[in-house]
Amino acid sequence: MTQERGRTLPFSGFKAAWRMLLDTLGGVSAVERAGITRGSASLLSRYGQVHESAFTPVDIMYEIEKAVVEAGGRPEFLFAYADALGFAVAPKAALENPMPVLDHAAVEAIGALGRVASAFHEAARDGVITPREAEGLATIGSRAEAEIHEFTEAAKARAAKGGAR
Hints:
Strand content: under 5%
Mean pLDDT: 85
Low-confidence stretches: none
Structural class: mainly alpha
Radius of gyration: 18 Å
Largest sheet: 2 strands, antiparallel
Helix content: 55-70%
Strand order of the largest sheet: 1-2
Distance between the termini: 41 Å
Number of strands: 2
Number of helices: 8
Order of helices and strands: EEHHHHHHHH
Number of domains: 2
Shape: globular
C-alpha cells in the first residue's frame, strides 16, 4: 500500500500482481515474442515497476490475464483488485459445482505449502537467508497465499451450497 494525499492506495500490490502475471507467461520477452498483446517488452516491464506512475491499460491487462488463465494460472490482478475493494473472486465452476473445485484447490494449496517448506529449508540450510533468497521466499509465499485463498473461497462456496455431497 502507498500513501498519496493522505489516502492509502494498493498500487504496489497491483504492480506486484502484474509482475506475477508476466512471470507466469515466461517474462516480458516471452510475452512480446508470443504477440499476446500490444506493447514492447520494455513497456510491459515498466508497468510493473513500483516507482513508475504508468499503469497497465485495461486492454493489455485483459489479454495478459486471459493468456495466464488459459495456461492454467490465476488472474492475479483481478484477485488483487477485488481484494483491495473488499471482495473475493471465485471461479464460476466453484459456485456451480463446488466439490471438484474444492478437491482441486485443496491439492494445489497443499502442494504450495510444500513448495514453501522446501524453499525455506533450502534457503536456511546454511544458516543464512540472503536478500535474494528472501525475495524468492516472498514470491513463493505469495503464490502459496494465492492457492490458499482459492481453497478458502472454494470451501466457502461449498459451505454456501449446502446439502449432501
